Amino acid sequence: MDNTVKRLLERLVRRIPSRMLKTTLDKWSRLTATQRQSIDYTESKWALTEKLLAICEENELTVKHIAELEMIHVIENPNLGMWHAFQLMDPQDDAHSVELTQFKEQFKSHLSELIRHVSIKIKKHTDEAVWIRIAWGDTFSRPNHLKPTYVVHYLQTPYVFLSSLTSKQKPLLSQALVLSTRYQAIKDANLSGRKLTAIRDLLMKQYLQVFPTKFPSPLAERNRVVSNLHIEKEQAGSAANRHQMACEAFGDGLLPQLQSAVYKLETKFRDHTNKTMTERDEPFRCVVKFASTNLLESLRHSASSGVASTPVTPLLSSVPLKGKNYFVITDNGPGPSSQK
Amino acid sequence: MVCERKQCASGDRTGTTALSRVTFTGQHCGYPVGGVVTQQPPKSKTCKRSGCLHRIKYVQKNKEKDSGNMEGAPAKGVLSHLSLLEVKARSRKTQLQQQSRVMELKAKVEALKTQREQLKAQIQTHQDLQKLRLAMDKQCADEEEENMEEESENSKLLRLMARHTQLKDLLHAHHLIGGYDIIKTRKGKGACVSIATAYEDVFLDTFNLEIDLKPTVKISRHNIPPFIPLNNLAEQNNMQTDLRVFLDTLSKHLNAFAGRKQQLKLVKEKHKSVEVMESNVLCSLLVLLFTVPREKTAVLCTLDYTDHTRCLPTRVHLESEDKQLPDSPQWKKNCTLLMETPVHKALITMKKMGSIA
């Protein structure tokens, strides 16, 4: 059997946790009922791999089929790996009426024109996301299925999410995407994270945002249970105010889980007590990185507890507002300066 | 009784003046009772204390004090003098306190009076405003020309205030019927618009926009999904000059989107025999797979909603293995039905007619 198939299958079985293996294989539906029943999922991974290899040989499955299985697994678990968001710019007139079959054909033809050996698989998920798996080869070698790139796009939106793309492959993919979606350019959206669902929710505004309303707080119930009449919070008013401002800046409820925010400063050094630094002509280069398991939640909490001053500084509130977590700050104006 | 004090100027022996200086206390059983009586002692009474049957004897109280016995007991005299001074001082303090208290109360009275005047003026303005509002509303209803006579500053201001309340009520009514609502934020420098969407008498999502009004009209924050072309709409409808037109168009887009999304949801819920082959996030394209009963032929139906401000499709396309089916009169009727009725309702009719399973 083909070596690549073996390696791919081995790697895949190692990656998929045992408890999800059964459901994934069922979804794949390339195995007959008897074959599925013959697999004992309590065996070790090595034994399972051997068993599956045997079955695949029996069914004469090729690398394309294994790639399908991998795609099913990745679609079910989109929060692994590192995802980067890109934004399509300047739509042409027919960008809004691009439909799936048209997009699929166009993308495949454009990419195949740009690079001779490439394996493309496109699948539409139930939540309207179009998933594309690309295995890259070049003029001389076959596509490498061990390092595929995954692309996720929602038609009629300007956002594309990419994972595992090298700098050599980037211009080729960009061109194919731009041509098939009928836009004119694509640029980096400066948003990245481990969880696809988080960066997608942030850009598609699928989390709960708070806006000023006529009646900001709910009506107090008549039989409100006061925890302890003898305890009075002296700063209840200002605490409520801070909480409101923090929620308006970041959102309410569960927030999309970002892992980091990076600020790259290219501003002039501004401390008059330090002459050597201020006398330099070049801007002061500095990188500030905030890291957390749930960055937006920590920022919101720091604003509502008073650690960060309220109203929330635009440097922090830009993360959800602009949907970016990489900022370059230069000296072009007063205040938080221009942020690219 | 005669005042026995030496050098007492009053020679009156029976008049009340002399007697007013004389105080009597009732005494019996050795205890003072009945308080101090400053006139003629009352006739001896029976003690009112329960169980006691003694008669009360009235004895001149200040006999010893007023006897002016200076040499007799000097300590007593000094002490009594001191106690007199103490009493005098205390009464002076209470007098002072009373004076400052009086001034406080007077000031409070003044403050309350001015407050009352203010409230009266407010009530008057409110009444004038209401009268003016009634007149204005009637004018609007009758479409008469406004009476632009020479008005004083006050009445101009009043007219402006009445117009303001009229607009606020109009906005509130607009919000109640499912239109958008605007509130002021950041002390007039910004506004927040909330656009409600509804379909078939059911309220769906609410979308919000925060707008900066100064220096230019600009959208600062919103929760409108990216497939609604917000920036395009802002440019096309000239948001800077005509905010209302922009908001009306945006509201149409959002309501139509919510309506189409709701139709898709109902099709998926209520018509399980119809398979949804394709849809998109904007709900501007829908491809459904019908099964004709009895023959079990499949019919693919494509609904294009190219006008994003409408809930009905602009184009219906049918395809089938049976090439003649789309041209049959029954299916031509179904085509028109799908163009004119919302899809979830059209499917009910088609099922009743037996076109689809």
From TrEMBL, chain A:
Annotated GO biological process: CENP-A containing chromatin assembly; chromosome segregation
GO terms for cellular component: chromosome, centromeric region; nucleoplasm
Matching InterPro entries: CENP-NAC/CAD_complex (IPR052011), Chl4/mis15/CENP-N (IPR007902)
Locations listed in the record: Chromosome, Centromere; Nucleus
Keyword Acetylation applies: no
Keywords in alphabetical order: Centromere, Chromosome, Nucleus
Domain of life: Eukaryota
Xref: PANTHER family: CENTROMERE PROTEIN N (PTHR46790:SF1)
Family listed: Belongs to the CENP-N/CHL4 family.
Protein name per UniProt: Centromere protein N
UniProtKB/TrEMBL annotation, chain B:
Chief localisation class: nucleus
Cell compartment(s), UniProt: Chromosome, Centromere; Nucleus
Entry coiled-coil feature ranges: 102-161
Any one GO cellular component localisation term in the record: nucleus
InterPro entries the UniProt entry points to: CENP-O (IPR018464)
Keyword terms of this UniProt record: Centromere, Chromosome, Coiled coil, Nucleus
CDD domains noted in UniProt: DRWD-C_CENP-O (cd23836), DRWD-N_CENP-O (cd23835)
Family according to the record: Belongs to the CENP-O/MCM21 family.
Name the record gives this protein: Centromere protein O
Protein source organism: Pundamilia nyererei
